[in-house]
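User:
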Amino acid sequence: MSACAECSDAKTCTKCSSDFLKIGEDNQCVCKGDTSEDPNLIVDRVGSCSCREGFWLTETGCKTCE
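Assistant: Predicted structure:
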């Protein structure tokens, strides 16, 4: 479990490694961001968060250096 900071067993995450992640229905960490609210956010098919080129992921979404 790459985004899991703490777990109770091999398949159950109890704490995620980032404030921008939440524990999903399958007990794995998934992106808690909303692409309709943050157009620079990318959520892949497994629920991971990333940002479009030129942005980085923060606790409040994708931001630029400006």
